[in-house]
Design goal:
The chain is mostly beta strands and 50 residues long. The protein contains 1 helix and 3 strands. Helices cover 10% and strands 26% of the residues. The protein starts with 5 loop residues before the first strand and ends with a helix.
Length: 50
Amino acid sequence: MSEKPKLVHCLECDHVFEERKKFIETCPECGNNDTQSTVYMGINDEEEDE
């Protein structure tokens, strides 16, 4: 079973990107490197079952 990618939302440019095994320090869209300006997006358990 492979690890699901984590979705990261950059609050500076509103871009969403995938983070797999390696931590991505900088938004690939705008270059934002402030981790306080990015959030991990979660999935509800119900959505995951579908």
